[in-house]
Design goal:
CATH class of the largest domain: Alpha Beta
Number of domains: 2
Structural class: alpha/beta
Distance between the termini: 45 Å
CATH topology of the largest domain: Rossmann fold
Oligomer: single chain
Order of helices and strands: EHEHHEHEEHEHEHEHEHEH
CATH superfamily of the largest domain: Glycogen Phosphorylase B
């Protein structure tokens, strides 16, 4: 049996392998195993840094449990430790995700099993000099960088930068983004529609504003497949993959929007 996720499902799925008497593999997709907020975004609406148990408990008490289970942090940690220990193997899509799981559950070392092959050749087009069109892909909620995108759009308008943002997808608050007058939104798309959509947008660069340490980041793969060098914050699998392939640039996490925009306007592949 392979367990990918328990959230949103009946708790009984967690005992199926035991009742059948078969081994279970666990695939890590996010951090619900030790973070009731799931994506490690804390009270200040940014990456929490994975603090101690007391700080995590206070965070959940203040902003809520995103798992919908309401078990409490100690019970979640104990359950995850039991499940990981009993599993035939635990796998994670990136070395970064594996290290984070190991930090909280030192008795296990997840096997790194990438979901795609970044070694396959791709042809990327360097951005031009001057005005730039920046593509942001997917569904942009808080963890995916909604506030960053909003601040960048507002700064581009206020400073009259030659910078245009296009969200290929949707956000948690499209109306607020549109009111910034610095971004165009395509709306949700089907997976098979994305290559043609990105080709039509004729973007110069892609930007992943995500502020949580992603475990893989499929939108990064999609941006590369469209021939776009990509900028992201130096965090998680998105940073690990960009650093390994040199298919983009990394920005310090917490960089102010004006500095982010300056990078988007002037970054060139080395």
């Amino acid at each position: 049996m392979v367990l990918h996720h328990g959230l949103g499902h009946h708790s009984g799925i967690r005992t199926i392998s035991e009742k059948l008497g078969c081994k279970q593999d666990i695939v890590v997709h996010d951090y619900a195993s030790f973070c009731p907020r799931v994506h490690l975004i804390g009270v200040e609406q940014r990456y929490c840094g994975e603090p101690n148990l007391q700080s995590c408990t206070s965070c959940v008490a203040e902003i809520g449990d995103a798992t919908g289970e309401g078990l409490g942090l100690k019970k979640i940690l104990a359950r995850s430790a039991r499940e990981f220990a009993a599993a035939r193997r635990v796998s994670a899509p990136s070395a970064d995700a594996s290290r984070r799981i190991l930090r909280h559950f030192p008795a296990i070392t997840p096997i790194v099993t990438p979901w795609e092959d970044d070694a396959l050749p791709l042809k990327l087009t360097p951005p031009g000099v001057g005005a730039r069109r920046i593509a942001v892909l997917g569904g942009i909620g808080l963890a995916k960088g909604f506030n960053i995108l909003l601040q960048c759009a507002r700064d581009a308008r206020q400073r009259r930068l030659k910078l245009e943002f296009i969200l290929a997808g949707s956000s948690v608050d499209d109306e607020q983004l549109l009111e910034s007058e610095g971004i165009f939104i395509t709306g949700a798309y089907g997976v098979t529609e994305l290559p043609e959509l990105l080709a039509d947008l004729k973007a110069d660069l892609a930007f992943i504003p995500s502020i949580w340490p992603e475990t893989w980041c499929f939108t990064l793969s999609e941006a590369w497949a469209a021939g776009l060098y990509t900028l992201a914050f130096d965090l998680g699998a998105q940073a690990e993959r960009i650093a390994a392939t040199k298919r983009g640039g990394l920005l310090p996490l917490g960089l102010p929007a004006p500095r982010v925009n300056d990078a988007l306007l002037h970054w060139m592949p080395g």
